[in-house]
Please model this.
Amino acid sequence: MTTDVLRYTAFTADPAGGNPAGVVLDATGWTDDRMQAVAAEIGYSETAFVLPGPDPRQAVLRYFSPLAEVAFCGHATVATAAALTERHGAGDYVFSTPAGVIPVHTRITDGVASATLTSVPTSFTPVSPAVLTEVLTYLNWHPRDLDPGHPPVVAFGGGHHLVLATRTRKRLANLSYEFDPLAALMRQENWTTLQLVYFDPDGTIHSRNPFPVGGVVEDPATGAAAAALGGYLRPNLDRPALLTIRQGEDMGRPSLLVVEIDPADPRIRVTGQAVPLPG
Model:
């Protein structure tokens, strides 16, 4: 079944970095069970399945992790856009996803495709103290590890992500959590990933994203969570901002995500490159 699957890595120009994604460019007639089985066999955090229409620049897009379908996945969207750009040229694409309509603009620079996706409208809500205590227990974190300048929230950018900011880069680097209990809590709360971040004084944001609900310990790059984080930060801005997120460095797959925030627009733009994987 995997002969129809292209393999790309997103949010990098280096095949050794980024977040790998499977891409099926024509899943017309495929059942949910078949898509789920292929995603499980591939084993990447997400595989995207394209249901093309008459216009090659417009399609329905569905995403499956090894364990379940998810409403939206940023890195698989970027990978899919890169694959389509290599076949149909750069420009504007529109994907209808379970989370909503996602416009994507693509370019090719020095032979490498990049894509800017525009999220659905973002939002965020507080997390209850009881749930936060439970999360910290499963992460093996202490409340004093949290950055008081960025309170925990559940942020939405196509999927729900618990955002936890740490005081130190060292705390972020030392990630060892209780997989099954955290996965059960995330399913209960309808969270896609945890967005664990450190705000470096130089302006860079460092991120790690546990994804046990998808059967994956950690995502090397998470475009949906980047959009959600942008929505969380948006109310504090009085002018447009361009933020850089570095992810995957602590797991040996460095990734770069660029987040564009407009205080007047709840939609967030996330940009990254994508390249085919060898073999």
Observations:
- The chain has a mean pLDDT of 97.
- The radius of gyration is 18 Å.
- Helices lie at 32-42, 74-88, 129-139, 169-173, 179-189, 223-233.
- The longest strand covers residues 265-276.
